[in-house]
Amino acid sequence: MAISLVEWFLKLVRVYWIAGLIFAIFFSLFGVQRTDPAARGLAPLFRLIIIPGVSLFWPLFAVRLVQGRQHPTEKNAHRLAAKFAP
């Protein structure tokens, strides 16, 4: 029972990673400039460097790509303080 559960989990992780890798390749080629305007015209090495991170967090990038967001969505103390600075 435990071995089949581990095998099932490893298959699930493998499918997630393969889907993420496929998404990351297409995202680095076509989608990164849609979500980050500063990425336009950057070297191909930059696109190669972002593939591991995008393949890990691909659902977040997919949502951001579909929604068309171009600005950071984080809300931390530094951004809030900068918003209210004179």
Provide structural commentary.
The protein is mainly alpha-helical. The chain has one domain (2-83). The protein has 4 helices and no strands. α1 (2-35) packs parallel to α3. The relative contact order is 0.12.
Distance between the termini: 62 Å
Helices, by number, come to 4
Q: Averaging pLDDT over every residue, what do you get?
A: 84
Return the structural class: mainly alpha
**Unreliable stretches:** none
What level of helicity do the residues show?
A: over 70%
**So what's the overall shape?**
extended
Number of domains: 1
Note the run of SSEs as H and E: HHHH
Strand content: under 5%
Please render the helix and strand layout as text:
Elements: H1 2-35, H2 44-56, H3 58-67, H4 77-83
Any descriptors?
86 residues, mainly alpha, 74% helix, 4 helices
Short description:
The protein has helices at residues 2-35, 44-56, 58-67, 77-83. It is mainly α and 86 residues long.
